[in-house]
Write the structure tokens for this entry.
Amino acid sequence: MRQFAVDEKGKETTSNFYTEEQFIAVFTSDKEETLTKCSFVCSEDCVLVVGNLNEEADMFAQYGQLENMTRRMIEHNASTVKDDFASYISASPEEWFRLLLQQRPDLLQRVPQHQLASYLGITPESLSRIKRRVLQGTTIS
């Protein structure tokens, strides 16, 4: 799944990719009519489990371990987002690409180049140059 936002000019900016068994938490506000500023699209077939905040308290009361498990998943997700953001703002696009290659090499095969470029904050042409430089002599499986 791809997470993205669309600006007032209609330009999409990709902020994350989610693959198998990753947890996605979307929090807007306590008002149901408030829409999130990001959208999600499934790039491949997906099986999703969707929760409802209105039923959360009842579920936690009925299944005691669910609240603890949910809290741990949200804490892990928040930590990952924080670490990714810190890496993103402190790294050059090439360093960010190298990190992506180390941590999520499957994305290169699964995601269109223009979406990867958007995620890295660069143009598709810049991504092509970086890929060519970084992948020279490197084999990707």
Q: What stands out?
A: The two ends are 21 Å apart (CA to CA). The longest strand covers residues 12-17.
